[in-house]
Structure formats: structure tokens, C-alpha cells
Amino acid sequence: MLKRTNFLFIFLFCLNLSTLFSQNISATIIDSTSLKPIPFATIQWSVDKGIITNEDGEFNLNIDQSIQLKDSIYISSMGYTTLGKTFEELKDSIIYLSPNTILLKNVIVSNKNYTADEIIDFVKENLDKNYNRDYTKKRMFLRERYFQNTNKTNYSDFESTITAFNSHFLDSVIQSIPKSDERYTESLFDLYGNYNEGNQKIDLIKASELYDKNSEVDVKKLEERFNKIIKENVKTTSYFKVKSGIFGSKIDSEGLFNTEIDSSDVDALNKKLEEEQERKKDRKIYFAKNIKKEVGNRFKNLFFMDNTDLNFITKSRKYEFNLIEYAYLGTDPVYVINFKPKNGADYQGTLFVNFDDFAILRADYENVKSIKTFKLLGISMNQYLDKGKMIFYKDSDKKYNLRYLEYENGAKVGIKRPLKIIEKNKVVKGKNKQNELSLKMDLALTSTNKYEIVVFNTEKSTSATYDSFTENNDVLPTYMPNYNPEFWKGYNIIEPNTAIKEFTSKEVE
């Protein structure tokens, strides 16, 4: 009887344990006073493992077998008292953090009352020893958001000698162009290497793409109409002279005709299948390379890197710094320092600097003027937006590692110039020019890109491990017409915001 009781107890305990491990913890972090969500709060359960809340204060934590019921988990954010719980206590869907009311100014006894400039000098002196630049293996999640809005699609002085290429056709082309395009790409992967440009290798685990395929359907239909008009009105031996202002280029018409393959031609079909497989293989390589490139670009612009564009530390003399308050970031007391440009610098923002080792634990920044502008011969570009934030944590070696990075850029592009397409044919005797189409374009669009990177854990590694690792990326993103909460079940990611959750494609006819 005793043995049965013990067995039953063990069975129920294991059942309870497996139920815990089969579930995620989903919650929203709320300010206990204002009842507003707390964005970018840190949820950490070991020195090197943690996640972060999204802009709505939400997180979803997948519990794996390495976590024990009695393990502690800590929730912290700037200006709040750190909350410590065990995993078995973390049951509520809403978790409240209390504002930290301790006046740090009164508890600073041993620290000298440094000026903001002196603190920044200490930051620079300690950059090399504070931040981990060694080889590591990082489990990372990247979310990319692309948005484009077409502001203007005007044309004038339209002329065409091909009847089918009339203003009605051109209007239908313009109407088929989506006024806006929004898409999200999400990727989970292990990254080997360090922060140095080109010193990264990627091992893709899973990826998704969220966008509306309707725009692709419209483009395909437009291409079919265009090809039909070309075939009926243009000789295959023709070539086109394209002029825009003083520039010109030559295009053979042969490349504009789609070729069809006879289904009875087995060799041709096999060749086409092989080409399709190669394209798919190339896309896998390209997809992984693109992710690695984006992560590498973000790494090289960390504020402590030598050639970073974010020069508010490396070229601090170009900025004015002001110490505005003392606060807690988690359990760490920090100096809160604002900075703004002088001498024509580009950025303003806020730094949170550790009292003891002068490491920047968090940096928020945004541009105060256009980063790049270009205007020549009717083509203009204005990179008007460049902003972001970085959050770091300290590992067991007292080195700081990246936990979260957010970056957003935006550009406005305009094209206002004439366009002329002339069909010419060397075979035809006499009149060399066959047809002509001309118009004046007036186009304008705005695009923004936003990147979010979360580093869930960082493991020590070596250059030898990095050199021996071979990339074998066989992952392509899974297409989703609308947000599917089941796709990332069992994995840790940064929770999607409301815009992603509510994203829905239009019905494809």
C-alpha cells in the first residue's frame, strides 16, 4: 500500500511538472500606480538568460526542461523596484511593478559628485573592459518591419504611337500599384562570432513572413497585359532606347517576351525544374545572408564600436551632456544623462550609466536632422529618420552583453523628370525608329524600416569554434496572410504588438 501511494505521488508530481513544461507564461507588466503597461521591461531567470517585454508591456515565456519550479525569476525596469518570484508563483496574467521611491541623491555617500562630462569621460575610458567583444554563440530573434507609402503618382505630357499604350492603360497601371505595402519578417537563429563586421555565422532555426500577397497577384496580371501588348505591336528584332533627361540605355526586346515550354519536351521540363530548384536554393542562401547582413549592420553601429555612426560616445566632444537625475535600472543605480548635438552633430537622446563601472546599460537616441540628402536631375532622397535603443546586461564575468536592440530608419524619395522609350529596329530598311512613348513623371514615396533584435542567451565560444562551424541554412520563411499565434509556440520571441496581431490580408480572388 505504501509503495502504491509513493508511486501515485511521484506520478502526480511528474504529471504536474510536465503540465508546467508544456505551457507558456504569458503576462503584461503594469505600473501599479498609473496602471499603464511598462515597455521593454526585462524578465531574467539566470545571469545569461532573459527576455524583454514589447512596446505594450507584454511577454510570452516558453518554459524548457532546464527550469525548475523553485527557480527564481526577476522582473525589472527603469524607475521600478525589481520584483522577484519563483516560476511556480508566476501565475497571474497581469504583473504589477511598483515605482521606486528611494531618493538616490541621499544615499550617494562614497561617490564624488561628478559632472556629466566627467561621467562620459569615465564611460570612454572603460569601454574596452566593460563590453564583451569575444567570440560567443547567441540565441537571437530578429523582427523586421517594412512599410512603404506611395504619396504621389502623377504624370503629364503623355504621348504614344502604340494605340494600346494609351492614357487609359497608364491610369490602370497606376491604380494597380498598392498605395501602401506593409510586411513583417521574423527569424530565430543562433549567431556565432563577435561584434566585428563580417565576423558572424548564422544557423537558422525558423522564420516567417507576414504580408498581403494581393499586390503580387496584381503585378502578375499587369505583366501579362504588358506582354500581350508588346507581342502584338513590337517586332522581336527590335530594341528599345530608354531616355530620362540626358541619360539613355539600350534594352533588347527579346528579353521582354516570355518563352513557353512544350509540356511534351521532357528535357526542357527537367531543365526548368532544375532551374527552379537552383533558384529556391539560392533564395535560402540569400535569405540567411540578408539576416546576417542586417544583424552585422546593427552590430557595427553599437555605440562602443570604433567606426560607429552613433558617435555620441566615440566623438563626445560634438555633444553637450547634462546629468538630469539618479535612478535605478533594475537593481543597478544609474546616472541619467541627456545629450544633444553641438558643432553640427546628428543625434540627441538619453544614456543610463552604471554608478560603479560607468557602463552604459541603456541608450536611447534619435536624429535631430536629416542623416543623408540627395538631389540631382529630378531625383531626390531624404533620410529623415534614424532612431533606436540598446539595452545591455552584465554576465558572470562582469562584462556587458546586448539584450535588446531597436532601430528604425525612414526615407522620402521623389522622381520628377521626363521619360522616353523609343523602339528601333536595325533589320527594317528606311525608317529606323518604329514606335515612341514619352511622358513626364512625378512620383513620391515614403518608406520606413524597423528592426528589433532580442538576445535570449549568450554562451562563451572561441575563434576555433567559429572557424570550424559551417553554415548549412536550409530554412525559408513560412508565408502567413495573417498573424498566427501558434507558429512560434514552443519558442521564445519578443511578443508581437497590436499592429501585428491585427494584421489581415485581403481576400485573394
How does this model look, in words?
- The chain is of the alpha+beta class and 509 residues long.
- It has nine helices and 21 strands.
- The strands form three sheets. Strands 8, 9, 10, 11, 12, 13, 14, 15, 16, 17, 18, 19, 20 and 21 form a 14-stranded mixed β-sheet that branches.
- The longest helix has 35 residues.
- The chain is globular and about 90 Å long.
- It starts with a helix and ends in an 8-residue tail after the last helix.
What is the overall shape? globular
- Strand fraction band? 35-45%
Distance between the termini: 67 Å
Uncertain regions spanning at least 5 consecutive residues: 1-22, 255-264
Mean pLDDT: 81
Class from helix and strand fractions: alpha+beta
Helix content: 10-25%
Could you describe the largest sheet, including whether it forms a barrel? 14 strands, mixed
Radius of gyration: 29 Å
Oligomer class: single chain
Count of helical segments?
Answer: 9
H and E order: HEEEEEEEHHHEHEEHEEHEEEEEEEEHEH
**Overall strand count:** 21
